[in-house]
From TrEMBL:
Transmembrane segments: 29-57, 69-90, 121-138, 150-170, 375-396, 408-431, 437-455, 462-480, 492-510
Protein name: FUSC family protein
Keywords on record: Membrane, Transmembrane, Transmembrane helix
């Protein structure tokens, strides 16, 4: 017990350490909050607490991203208000129709949460719909209720407008350059650490380097993905970056994770063989920082890549490096900026094929059931204060049991900090002595900065969001200082009610374990690659192939990032088989990274019209057809845990193409990655 507590304390301490851009981001949130607070209090706008929380939801990646996110937020709120009014008018405010509309809106929200490329707005729709529909349960006159709903739109407009203003004044301008610096910084930190291991440095010399790597690992991929989002939203010149930079960010984050774990496990290193491997890794990181790896180093890593079913931490470092180096980098291919960053306008709103999948419908049904049940309960008992139960369903409603438990734990923790400690503490000890808006502003600055700092972390950022949410809802329930202690208590009771209902539905009645969801995600990648391999043979022009390939490319990047996140939350699963689930999760994550390398090796070659012969060569068409069947077989094996009929390399291609001066490298890379994937899938057959 003491060891577990010590581990969690260390993780929390690591997560709150300063990381690149964290100060800047937290201070921008504070400034936007202060501006919004002054405007909301001056104009006496209802729903001030909800509007203040919106500041944390609007994208702050760049001025352009903030403006687009703000417009989408206002559009979502406007559509939700229109939907509520339509239900009330058409049904003449019938009570049963209100309940059924909540069920329907929750179902739609759940469907979009899983199947859209902007899931945050699906959450906003469901949450705002239930909040506004509950107003009509008060039986107040229609005029004031409609006015209140429009006030919500005005309050949200002021908040998101404050965010956009701050971002246009202080936002990032050179996102591509910043992203490249962040990538180089991480590779240089890895190079320094492994160089010290190779030199036999003592613990005192190694400790600062290991701590530096661990802090960068704790920072995760979030900040770098936001920089990538700036590039695609503003269509900036990404030519200084390597091909497939989005998935490279995820790969590099995984590399830092395993490297940091290795650093903490080995204070020093005396084994000559291990030191030699560390020297090789340091050399690779040096060249990766330059976005070029000499062919001899690529070949050396490929020869040393074979590891057993139970890889050591250093083996895992080699495995991730192998996946990174397997992807195309620069050279002639870098002339196509589209390979580096896909413009956001080419990303569809709905994930192709995801809307009507059985797991999407099942998830939406669970969300709808939980939200409707919470809505009915708090109306039936006549306790409006526990309406946070419905909000919790949308805020914490994730597809897997591990992710759900993590969110619920963090939701309760954030509510205790923001609602009971900060809001209740302020009500008892501070508000009786506060007589001006200046003191209120100072209080909000302190709480918002604390919340924003937590939001900047990788592991516990959701606690920061819920701290701000709970504090704002309690403190800004009206236009005067709160004097009652019941609101914090009621909100906590509502959260606990949702926790019980969601745990019962998501974990007992209809559970989806993290590993199950990860298997489905990996199978989605396999099936998608199989479809593209077949379409490459049917496409009459390169443009016909690139349309679906671009959509799938975006899906691959998001799916791999999702798999990595789900792997992090396996530890929140309960049961004696959690260790086995973690082992299976590691294999799935490694397989997904290899699948990404497989996809990019083909995509980078087939994207150019001048390489049309790669699409029309009969031997390559035959190979891709066999690979497509193999991908489908692997997808089925991963999901159903069935035996996989291994396809030998000799059956894939005519031997003459392996050494062909033009096609040889493409063929060799495809076969090598395919063999690795088959090994991963074979290992997964015996895993839970």
């Amino acid at each position: 017990m003491a060891a577990n507590l010590s581990t969690w304390t260390a993780r929390i301490w690591q997560d709150i350490q300063p990381t690149p851009g964290r100060w800047n981001g937290a201070l921008r949130i504070v400034l936007a909050s202060v501006i919004a607070l002054i405007l909301l209090m001056t104009l006496r706008m209802p729903f001030a607490g909800l509007a203040m929380y919106y500041i944390f939801l609007v994208g702050r990646d760049s001025p352009a991203v903030s403006l687009r996110s703000a417009m989408l937020s206002l559009l979502t709120v406007s559509m939700t208000i229109a939907a509520v009014l339509a239900v009330v008018v058409v049904t003449d405010n019938d009570p049963m129709s209100r309940v059924l509309s909540v069920a329907a809106a929750s179902f739609v929200s759940g469907m979009l949460l899983v199947s859209s490329t902007t899931p945050g707005f699906a959450v906003i729709f469901g949450f705002i719909f239930t909040v506004l529909m509950s107003l009509w349960e008060t039986h107040a006159p229609a005029g004031p209720l409609v006015k209140q709903m429009l006030y919500l739109l005005g309050a949200v407009s002021l908040s998101v407008g404050s965010v956009v203003f701050v971002e246009y004044v202080f936002g990032r301008r050179n996102a591509a350059e910043e992203l490249q610096k962040e990538r180089i910084l991480r590779y240089q930190a890895l190079e320094t650490m492994f160089s010290l291991y190779a030199q036999g440095a003592d613990a005192a010399q190694l400790s600062p380097a290991v701590i530096h790597v661990s802090r960068l690992a704790v920072a995760g991929q979030y900040a770098m993905q936001r920089l990538y989002n700036i590039i695609v939203e503003r269509n900036l010149d990404p030519s200084m970056l390597p091909i497939g930079v989005r998935v490279r960010i995820t790969m590099q984050a995984q590399l830092l994770d395993v490297a940091a774990a290795f650093g903490f496990q080995y204070p020093t290193l005396s084994d000559p063989a291990l030191r030699q491997r560390c020297a090789h890794i340091a050399n690779l990181c040096h060249y990766l920082a330059l976005d070029t790896v000499p062919p001899d180093l690529r070949k050396q890593l490929a020869e040393e890549h074979a590891v057993g079913p139970e890889p050591t931490l250093l083996d895992r470092v080699d495995l991730v490096l192998h996946d990174i180096i397997s992807m195309p980098m620069k050279g002639d291919l870098a002339t196509s900026k589209k390979l580096i960053a896909l413009p956001s306008r080419q990303v569809p709103f709905l994930i192709p094929g995801a809307l009507w999948q059985p797991q999407t419908i099942a998830f939406a049904l669970k969300i709808s059931f939980c939200a409707t049940l919470c809505y009915i309960i708090y109306l039936a008992v006549g306790w409006p204060g526990i309406s946070t139960s419905t909000a919790t369903v949308f805020i914490a409603g994730l597809g897997t049991s591990g992710a759900l438990k993590q969110r619920l734990v963090f939701r309760v923790t954030g509510s205790l900090i923001g609602g009971l400690i900060f809001a209740l503490g302020s009500t008892v000890f501070l508000f009786p002595h506060m007589d001006s808006i200046t003191s209120l502003v100072l209080l909000v600055i302190a709480v918002v900065f604390f919340s924003a700092w937590l939001v900047g972390g990788r592991q516990f950022n959701f606690i920061g969001l819920q701290t701000a949410f709970s504090f704002h809802l309690v403190v800004f329930a009206g236009f005067s200082a709160p004097t009652e202690l019941a609101p914090p208590r009621d909100r906590l009771v509502g959260i606990l009610l949702a926790l019980v209902i969601m745990a019962f539905v998501f974990d007992l009645i209809w559970p989806v374990r993290n590993v199950t969801a990860m298997r489905n995600s990996l199978a989605t990648i396999f099936r998608g690659v199989g479809v593209l391999l077949r379409e490459s043979a049917a496409a009459r022009t390169t443009a016909e192939f690139l349309g679906p390939a671009d959509s799938f490319r975006d899906l691959v990047g998001k799916t791999v990032a999702s798999i990595r996140t789900m792997n992090d939350t396996i530890e929140y699963e309960f049961g004696v088989d959690r260790i086995q689930h973690q082992h299976a999760g590691d294999i799935i994550l490694r397989a997904s990274l290899t699948a990404v390398a497989f996809f990019w090796n083909g995509y980078a070659v087939l994207h150019r019209e001048q390489d049309r012969d790669f699409l029309t060569e009969p031997g390559l068409i035959k190979m891709r057809a066999i690979l497509a069947n193999g991908m489908d077989a692997m997808a089925q094996s991963v999901v159903r845990k069935t035996d996989l009929a291994m396809i030998e390399p000799a059956a894939l291609i005519d031997g003459s193409l392996l050494t062909h001066p033009r096609y040889g490298e493409y063929v060799q890379n495809a076969i090598a990655r395919f063999e690795e994937l088959q090994k991963f899938v074979t290992q997964l057959r015996t895993e839970p």
